[in-house]
Write a structure and sequence with these properties.
- The chain contains 8 helices and 8 strands; from the N terminus they run βααβαβαβαβαβααββ.
- The protein has helices spanning 14-21, 38-46, 65-73, 86-95, 112-122, 136-146, 175-181, 184-187, and strands at residues 2-7, 55-59, 78-83, 102-106, 125-130, 150-161, 190-199, 212-219.
- The protein has an 8-stranded mixed β-sheet with strand order 1-7-8-6-5-2-3-4, sandwiched between helices.
């Protein structure tokens, strides 16, 4: 696993503009609230696949801004947003009803059986992103569970890694700590694995300082994966606390 630092300075990409339009903190040019430089990194990583029929999953949807961002950037992709908060899920059912390529479902990032069942239900994925609690143990559980839910060549990313320390727990999210908890065999199933610290002239994460990504790219499965899931539609039922 590599450790990388990138400073984008004043750079702006098409994805930055799309992300800013949907008011997601993934936009490097967002003017209010947190602004992570992810939109530049993601543009460079995925720009060659914009027209592909991808399956994308993201855990942690908040107001649905990033789901709309992915929908605009990947117009041929099927997108699933997961969350444990019924309020966010029910809001998405209403506000995303005109985007049939986006589906939402309940998941609990802290429960392995739920995580495994729900990701299996919707996968396999070309791109799978974790953007929920930002807790170290939840990130490790996600990585270990989600690895088998990827398509060959797939990408798995954990967002909002703390550059210094998680102020809530005192946990240091360093590359050494991740290596202690992740099996070498898991890491070897990817062509590239790296922890990347990102900077930009507009970067803002006051009180959190969590502008890093943990990236697993180029998945190499042990055996064949299942058939692609059917094209999703927005769920029409409401969600309640489990």
């Amino acid at each position: 696993m590599e450790f990388i630092k990138i400073n984008y300075f004043n750079r702006v990409t098409d994805l930055c503009v799309i992300a800013d339009k949907h008011d997601t903190d993934k936009s490097a040019i967002r003017q209010e609230g947190h602004s992570h430089p992810y939109s530049i990194f993601y543009y460079d990583l995925f720009k060659g696949r914009r027209k592909d029929k991808l399956k994308i999953g993201e855990i942690g949807i908040l107001d649905g801004g990033s789901l709309c961002m992915w929908n605009d950037f990947f117009p041929s992709a099927s997108i699933v947003g997961f969350d444990s908060n019924p309020r966010y899920l029910n809001k998405a059912l209403k506000t995303l009803s005109d985007r049939p390529q986006i589906e939402v479902d309940y998941i609990d990032i802290g429960k392995k059986d739920v995580l495994d069942e729900v990701l299996e239900k919707h996968g396999p994925f070309d791109i799978l992103i974790e953007d929920s609690t930002h807790l170290f143990d939840h990130q490790i559980l996600f990585i270990k569970t989600a690895v088998d839910k990827l398509k060959p060549g797939g990408t798995m990313i954990v967002e909002d890694i703390f550059i210094t320390m998680d102020h809530r727990t005192g946990m240091v999210h360093s590359i050494d700590e991740y290596m202690k908890r992740l099996d070498d065999k898991l890491i070897q199933r990817f062509e590239r694995c790296y922890l990347i610290h990102l900077d930009h002239s507009n970067r803002r994460s006051p009180g959190w300082d969590n502008d890093a990504l943990l990236v697993f790219d180029g998945y190499r499965p042990r055996a064949g994966l299942g058939e692609d899931a059917a094209a999703p539609g927005v769920r029409t039922s409401e969600f309640s606390d489990p």
